[in-house]
Design goal:
Blueprint: H1 18-27, E1 29-32, E2 36-43, E3 50-56, H2 65-82, H3 84-93, E4 96-103, H4 111-131
Parallel strand pairs: 3-4
Antiparallel strand pairs: 1-2, 2-4
Helix pairs in contact: 2-4
Length: about 130
């Protein structure tokens, strides 16, 4: 029997409401890198301990829908693999973290470069929430 994979990013991990997205952009702290902008908030007194994610690849930068979807899949995979430390922190400290990732380059990047920028952003977020 195969072991159950707890490293999944199901539908419950994604922010879908416009109000939550706009609140994230208004009140969130920002981490900028070359072509990935990360916005995040941490709520200490949350009802549920959860990590919520929002991914955006603007149409004005990448016109082709296939390329936008490919970039979103690459970002989602990089987040799925590297969110482990933040998930355990949230579970132990009963807080809620919302992370928005915005792709901000007009050209398509490879998975390795996207993953490196995501890792740097997540390390920055993790070090900031641990200091709190």
């Amino acid at each position: 029997m195969a072991a159950k994979n707890n490293n999944k990013l199901g539908r419950s991990y994604f922010i879908k409401r416009k109000t939550e997205i706009s609140r994230l952009f208004e009140t969130g702290r920002r981490v900028n890198s070359d072509f990935i902008k990360t916005i995040w908030t941490c709520e200490d007194l949350a009802l549920k301990s959860e990590v919520k994610i929002f991914i955006s690849v603007p149409k004005r930068l990448i016109n082709d829908a296939n390329q936008r979807n490919l970039l979103k899949r690459r970002i989602r995979e990089a987040l799925r693999i590297n969110l482990g430390e933040i998930k355990t922190y949230v579970a132990l400290n009963s807080c809620s973290i919302k992370i928005g990732v915005v792709y901000s380059s007009a050209e398509s990047k490879g998975y390795n470069s996207i993953e490196n920028k995501i890792i740097l952003s997540l390390q920055n977020i993790y070090s900031n929430i641990r200091v709190k």
